Amino acid sequence: MTLSNFLTDLDLNMEALLKILDYSSDEIFVLNKDKKIIYVNDACKKHYGLNKEDVIGKASMELADKGYWYPSIFPDVLERKEPITIKQTTILGAELLTSVVPILNDQKEVELIVTTARELQSYKMLKVNENDSKNSKEAEDPFGSSIITNNEKVKNVLKFAKKVAAANSTILILGESGTGKSLLAQYIHENGNRRTGPFLTINCAAIPAELMESELFGYTPGSFTNANRSGKKGILECANGGTVFLDEIGDMPLPLQAKILQVIQEKKFIPIGGNKEKSVDIRIIAATNKDLNKMVKSKMFREDLYYRLNVVDINMPPLRERQEDIVPLIYNFLYKFNRNHEMNKLISKDCLECLTHYLWPGNIRQLENLIEKLVIVSNDVISIDDLPEGIYYQGLAQIENTTPATLNEAVELAKKEMIRKSYKVNKSSRRVAKDLQISQTYAARLIREYCQDWSED
Ligand SMILES: Nc1ncnc2c1ncn2[C@@H]1O[C@H](COP(=O)(O)OP(=O)(O)O)[C@@H](O)[C@H]1O
Ligand SMILES: [Mg+2]
């Protein structure tokens, strides 16, 4: 199909116009005078991880308050009744150059507010903004350790975590590797009243058992050969007033489990080689991807410690059970690695679709690592062909397996299949129309919609 017949067929009606706006890589965002969002184009998906349907009708303040963008400018524009352009950061880490234009009526009252927002990264590629130093970015990024989610289960996890963060209870975080357990532990610390105190992690799977004890408890001067002459403070002591995160606690050796249980219960311990008890004021958060219950049964984990830890437990669901998080996470990592590697890679729609359906055994860590690799190795647009074979085939197979959830989806799917089949054989909208007994204009429209990828034929 050529561009000219695309345009003649188009007779710019409302539907066509809205479609065109969705092709804009810049975001277009319109508020009415009550600051309700009355229009936004598809770019809101890559900037905020939100579908337009979830945005339109909302009060803009509600989204700004939830941190979807920062800083907020609408109040300023309403007051000054003049256009403003500023730099904003979104919840996914996109840096936008946002221009807000108030549209006034004859009485000089604001009728509409029209916003366009473009990713700053693309300006940087044009070498504008060169002195806007990279170093200041970390410091001013208000979303540094935020947990991205659109999933109800995870939202509930965060709500619950916030609640228990305020209490000083010991917490056990369970979930597969890479689901965000460590991130959640930090979130709990930052939302509790110890947030100004230290947050220290010991990863029980990464440290040899012999070292783990001295790392945790520290030792007194001369307590063993090769030991530092003046002794060494352990993590438990250094974390005084803060939080100790025992990561992968399922890998902690049994003798240490007994000692840790004592620390949890009494908030006291004796350093290696010492004879005086030390008291500490710490909160303990533990995490594991192991089935501790099973380990207790096979005597690999102490039952008493398990019950002590298990008082408050939180489950992080695997990524495959939170499909709505995949696209926002992809864009978040894309922004991050584009920035780190000074690239400006985009990602194609079918690639996003395939990644959304892949089952992610390594969860968010696997997704993060993949996006970093793709940013480095792919061409300007990350395409479905850049994906590793395993992901490509499983993703596509999962898409084939999805049964439509609604009647509309089923009808859509059937329409698409019939049009593609017919167009493949008939190769013209006139013959497709005849074949499927529909009008030629309708056939042409459906062909445009469903057979885009063949339009060069
Ligand atoms: N919801 C999330 N939003 C953004 N990044 C996330 C999210 N969950 C996990 N990550 C990132 O994914 C990686 C793996 O998370 P991590 O907390 O280390 O998982 P786990 O401890 O369960 O193995 C980390 O780099 C983390 O920052
Ligand atoms: Mg971890």
TrEMBL record:
Molecular functions (GO terms): ATP binding; DNA binding
Pfam families the UniProt entry points to: AAA_lid_14 (PF25601), PAS (PF00989), Sigma54_activat (PF00158)
Alphabetical UniProt keywords: ATP-binding, DNA-binding, Nucleotide-binding, Transcription, Transcription regulation
Domain PAS: 13-58
Domain Sigma-54 factor interaction: 147-376
GO BP term, pick one: regulation of DNA-templated transcription
InterPro entries: AAA+_ATPase, AAA_lid_NorR, P-loop_NTPase, PAS, PAS-like_dom_sf, PAS_fold, Sigma_54_int, Sigma_54_int_dom_ATP-bd_1
UniProt cross-references to NCBIfam families, sorted A to Z: sensory_box
Name under which the protein is recorded: PAS domain S-box-containing protein
